[in-house]
Specification:
This protein has 2 domains: 113 residues, Orthogonal Bundle (Cytochrome Bc1 Complex, Chain D, domain 2), CATH 1.10.760; 149 residues, Four Helix Bundle (Hemerythrin (Met), subunit A). Helix content is 49%, strand content 0%. The protein is built from 11 helices and no strands. The protein starts with a helix and ends in a 19-residue tail after the last helix. The relative contact order is 0.11.
Length: 309
């Protein structure tokens, strides 16, 4: 009898632990009706002029429907909070920027407007930038469900895409470990003859945190090209866009790059510096499976690329 009771208690504890560890989603009532009402009033004052009174979009994108949820569902709810709290309204001065509490209230209004149920407690503004609350699984999630565009044939190969987009944008993000954002990208050396080149001028047109945001969005959006039918590796082999690992690594790169973008929006150097480890790990995970180990360039180093190890 004692053993049976102990077994029951153990199962109960295990079940409770698993339940506690299950990630919450916006279907689980993560805001309150009163919070959504506050957010509705604030939205009418601060947001409706651009996004439309019914969140259907105007000069700014819609905040309801599939285009909205497909944009955010690969990220936690914190991404929507960060976008509202730190990036709205665009080019805002310090007086126009929303407080964390206001941003959380507008998040609640957006969730209610999209049909997600209310709960008994507010979506908390405290540490909302790190909230693990997610979106429910659904259509249009991840690289595996991406459409296969047939109207465009890739110009270059995968190595050229990596070198032209991924390499220098990743390195710009990694540089936040070493310098302040205001010093990115680095100035050309003063010893350069004849001053700045056109390339130097263009590189310095966008500096500081906007440069980090640009690099992060470039990584996220260029990752969709990794799934483009017809793209090939440097050795001529077709990229394995139907391989489960390839799809998984593509999803991971999009997710990590988007999170880097959100952290850049908060202008938190320490948080982004720490997070660059995730970016490095994501790159390396794909390289270990699909890229040769034998160094850079040269026909001898590319024979095995795009082949699963």
């Amino acid at each position: 009898m004692a053993l049976a009771t102990l077994t029951f208690v153990t199962l109960l504890i295990t079940s409770s632990s698993l339940s506690a560890q299950a990630p919450r989603t916006v279907q689980d009532g993560v805001y309150s009706d009163s919070q959504a009402s506050r957010g509705q009033a604030l939205y009418a004052q601060r947001c409706a002029g651009c996004h439309g009174p019914a969140l259907a979009g105007a000069s700014a994108p819609a905040l309801t429907g599939d285009p909205f949820t497909n944009k955010f569902r690969m990220e936690p709810l914190s991404a929507l909070f960060i976008q509202i709290r730190y990036a709205m309204p665009p080019r805002a001065d310090a007086n126009a920027q929303l407080t964390s509490e206001q941003a959380a209230d507008i998040v609640a209004h957006v969730l209610k407007s999209n049909g997600f149920p209310a709960g008994k407690t507010d979506f908390p503004a405290v540490d909302a930038t790190n909230s693990p609350i997610g979106w429910p699984a659904g259509r249009g999630v991840g690289a595996g469900s991406a459409p296969s565009p047939s109207w465009y044939s890739p110009t270059g190969n995968l190595a050229q895409l990596m070198r032209g987009v991924f390499f220098h944008n990743s390195n710009l993000i990694f540089s936040i470990q070493e310098v302040e954002a205001k010093d990115l990208p680095p100035q050309p050396p003063p010893t350069r003859p004849d001053g700045l080149t056109t390339f130097d001028w263009g590189l310095m047109a966008y500096t500081g945190w906007p440069a980090v945001e640009n690099a992060s969005t470039a990584l996220a959006d260029a990752s969709a090209l990794l799934m483009l039918p017809g793209i090939r590796c440097e050795n001529g082999r077709a990229a394995p866009i139907t391989e489960p690992d390839w799809i998984k690594f593509t999803d991971q790169m999009i997710s990590v790059a988007r999170r880097a973008y959100r952290l850049a929006q908060t202008k938190n150097k320490e948080a982004l510096s720490e997070y660059t480890l995730e970016l490095s790990n994501t790159c390396n995970a794909c390289h270990r499976v699909y890229r040769d180990v034998g160094g850079r360039g040269g026909a001898g180093n590319t024979a095995g690329r795009c082949m699963h190890r």
